[in-house]
From TrEMBL:
This is Amino acid permease. The keyword Nuclease does not apply. GO terms for molecular function: transmembrane transporter activity. PANTHER family: AMINO ACID TRANSPORTER-RELATED, INNER MEMBRANE TRANSPORT PROTEIN YBAT. The chain crosses the membrane at residues 21-41, 47-68, 92-112, 132-151, 158-181, 196-214, 235-263, 283-310, 331-348, 354-373, 385-404, 410-431. It comes from Guyparkeria halophila. InterPro entries: AA/rel_permease1, APC_superfamily. The keyword Mitochondrion does not apply. It comes from the Bacteria. It is a multi-pass membrane protein. Keywords: Cell membrane, Membrane, Transmembrane, Transmembrane helix.
Amino acid sequence: MSKENDRSTTYQEGSLTLPGAVMLGTGVMIGAGIFALTGQMAEMTGVLFPLAFLSAAVIVGFSAYSYIKISNTWPSAGGIGMYLYKAYGNRLPTAFNALLMYFSMVIAQSFLARTFGSYSVQLFGGDGSGRLVSILGVSLIIAAFLINLLGNRLIQGVASLIGILKIGGILLFGLVGVWLADSITVDFSSTGEAGTIGNFLGATALGILAFKGFTTITNSGSEISDPHRNVSRAIVISIAACVVIYTLVGFVVASNLSLAEIIETRDYSLAAAARPALGEYGVWFTVIIAMMATAGGILASIFAVSRMLAMLTEMKLVPHRHFGMPGSIQKHTLVYTVVLGILLTAFFDLSRIAALGIVFYLVMDIAIQWGVLRYLKTEVDARAWVPAMAIFLNLLALLGFVWVKLNTDPFVLGVAVAAMIAIAAAEWVFLQRGWGRSHSDDEEKRTPEHRD
């Protein structure tokens, strides 16, 4: 096989421990979730935003069941790409939904990068033009790219250290904030128009974006030690830890800032909430924690998403060109992922990045749940009612989010729909030309008959 057409991948089996996998998962979840989404969720549903986080956790709990069942049966470094293949075979639904997940993860890293920039500029009095936010965000992606080039053990070590520091710092912020706040009660009785069911479901959808980082773990499946047990453990631990942290911090923010202040400072609301509770030193502390959290999230996100694209390339579901680059397929997909992330970071704001990410993710997640319900429930020993409930709840959240955006920012919905049509059309052409049909005989034998 010529070097130009080489699609082979090499993975370091057993190179990630259970704690390392947990830190990778929470790295993405906490970085994207609590630091930037709090203000956006409050803008949608008012003082009900702490409850929207809990509502999102319930939906993610149902969704995670399918990922756990599949990962216990087929742990894979390709994660979701391989899971979709098991359900739909070497066909358009697999390629389309896997690419939705890929782009949602690239969007997530851009979201983290801009959050990093939004918090960092608070140390310099803000950034009215927004240029410094973009510059800092792009710089972070480049730094994370360089670390990812150096191997799994360094990634795990850096992610674990950052994870410990940021989780400890956020918990300290939450506990001190509760202690110093005049009251941690939130008045849920006067929500006004923001309290409508559509707005609450829209905020819940954004909350799901704060938890979806658990899929980072599935994309590292075969590289985790004892994956048949530890992938599911890492998912459960990560989600549980984030439920506690999000709930605590959500109530602290609601107790220390008015709703108008939360919305006004929506890109850096935790730093704003630290000022009345802890003074300027509290702002500096919170900004530093946010910088660490988003940096760790970028590191973990790039690590996972480049591996998923590498698996799709190996499965010949997406085209690939080396463009003269040396090294393995993972290095090439790492470059593609970073370049896309830089472009999004430079040209999209936080709210629109989040909107694109949640639409792509929810559509993909519904496909995963349907795949388990329709095709895989016997093979993975799943109870049918759980993925069925996950589909219903995901649809509710997606419809609520679409309703909100139709009334506030229809342009971003148009971009999302156009992007999905373009992805589907490009993949249909690619597969129709037969470039994706030469999967190995061994894989074809393991493809259930109903997909032929």
